[in-house]
Amino acid sequence: MKNIAIILASVGKNMSLAQNIQEVVTALECKSEILNLVALDLPMYTSVIEEEKGIPKEVHFLAKQLQTFDALIIVSPEYNGSMPPVLNNTIAWVSRVGDDFRAIFNQKFVALASHSGGGGMRGNDAVRAMFSYIGANVLSREIINNYAKPYKKETVVSVVEELLVILK
What is the side-by-side strand order in the sheet with 3-8? Predict the structure, then answer.
């Protein structure tokens, strides 16, 4: 049974979207877990903080946890034409665990999802660029919801099924 992490970078509408995605993943007979990055409440990454305080234990736990998943679905709104700071900050921290900053995400398959007042596409482009740079294989098809484009279960089913075909 495949195990998919649903990484949540905001609450509200994106939490609802993550829960809808989780329902689809479960219906397709896969395990899943929503990892709420907002709830982690990590300090802002800087090299000074890392040097003075070290890598937070929550980051070490998250890094180990991420390695157990077969694929990731990133649920993230668009913030000012980019990704939310909580997502960028979390990846900055996780990339500091170990000797190879790409190790956790290298060759991992990733799907993108967004509910955003700003449309979501520019935000997903930023997320795509970051995850591609750290070695992930990001699907071209996305789940985009906004106030003009409501949730469609058939879109989520299609994206998750595409992810599962790749994982076989």
Answer: 31-36, 3-8, 71-75, 109-115, 137-145
